[in-house]
Amino acid sequence: MRDRGPIAAGLVFFLALVTFPFWYNAAVGATGTPPELPRPEGEVNCVAPTDYMRMAHMDLLIDWREQVVRTGARSYVAFDGRTHIVSLTNTCLGCHAGQAEFCDKCHDYAGVKPPCQDCHLDPKALQRSVR
Ligand code: HEC
Ligand code: HEC
Ligand code: HEC
Questions:
Q1: Distance separating alpha carbons of residues 8 and 28, to the nearest angstrom
Q2: Which of 21, 38, 79, 84 could bridge 97 with an S-S bond, Cβ 3.0-4.6 Å?
Q3: Contact between 16 and 22 (Cβ < 8 Å)
Q4: Is 105 in the pocket of ligand 2 (CB under 6 A)?
Q5: Which ligand gives the minimal distance to the CA of 68?
Q6: How far is the CA of 20 from the centre of ligand 2 (A)?
Q7: Which of 67, 86, 88 to mutate for ligand 1's pocket (most ligand atoms within 8 Å of CB)?
Q8: CA of residue 120 to ligand 1 center, whole Å
Q9: How far is CA 123 from CA 9, 109, 115, 130, in A?
Q10: Residue nearest to atom 39 of ligand 2 (CA)
Q11: Which residue, 85, 104, 99, 94, is CA-closest to 43?
Q12: How much is the pLDDT for 49?
């Protein structure tokens, strides 16, 4: 059996390949567990149903931006009849724990990096850094 060497080498290579996702994740420290997101205290509803927000908050934010920039109108009547001020900083981050604590916890897990914070600051984080 002169083929033993190449077969063993091929086997090792194959095993390395099929187990790649496991040791790669271990090496970069990623886990398969989604992050625990803080829930706003005393609040039941988001500005749209949770399932919709989970899937499409980016679309809603873009609609909000277009509404403000194009028409100047700054109120938004939510699905539950509540009226919110159209503001990423004051409304979204005002109710949720904060950009780092809420938004980016999920974005880091999902591997997305929205560029909004270059201009839209998180007031709670700023207050903390001043203190
Ligand atoms: C280059 C700077 C800049 C970046 C980057 C930026 N914005 Fe804005 N955005 C603005 C400015 C300026 C306004 C107008 C502010 C106003 O009139 O209140 C605005 C308004 C908005 C508004 C409506 C008003 C408000 O205060 O929230 C939303 C929503 C919004 N942007 C969402 C986003 C999102 C989502 C992203 C990332 C995908 C983003 N923006 C990235 C500058 C920026
Ligand atoms: C008045 C408080 C409030 C405001 C304002 C608000 N949210 Fe929410 N948000 C909530 C609550 C409550 C939930 C539901 C949590 C649940 O069902 O466990 C939620 C859920 C979410 C989720 C899904 C989280 C998950 O666990 O999957 C996302 C994403 C989200 N909000 C983004 C936003 C964005 C973006 C804005 C601004 C456009 C916003 N929220 C404004 C209270 C708010
Ligand atoms: C439950 C997880 C989760 C939470 C919480 C969450 N996001 Fe996201 N967000 C995502 C995912 C996943 C994407 C990428 C979706 C895609 O590419 O189709 C995304 C994309 C975005 C985008 C579009 C970025 C782009 O480049 O297209 C914006 C803007 C955004 N999120 C803003 C926010 C803000 C602001 C908050 C906090 C108020 C927030 N998100 C909270 C999961 C989340």
A1: 28
A2: 38
A3: no
A4: no
A5: 1
A6: 36
A7: 88
A8: 6
A9: 57, 23, 17, 11
A10: 92
A11: 94
A12: 98
**Which residue matches tokens 């909004």?**
116
Ligand 1, atom 22, lies closest to the CA of: 65
The residue written with tokens 């992050």 in the block is: 35
Using a 6 Å cutoff on CB, does residue 68 contact ligand 3? no
Q: Dihedral of CA 96/120/91/122: which sign?
A: positive
Contact 67, 130 (CB under 8 A): no
What region does 36 belong to: left with phi over 0, alpha with psi -120 to 50, or beta?
beta
Q: Which of 47, 59, 112 is nearest to 86 (CA)?
A: 47
Residue-by-residue pLDDT tens, the chain, 131 positions: 567 777 777 776 666 666 665 555 555 555 678 899 999 999 999 999 999 999 999 999 999 999 999 999 999 999 999 999 999 999 999 999 999 999 999 999 999 999 999 999 998 888 888 87
Protein residue with its CA nearest to atom 24 in ligand 1: 87
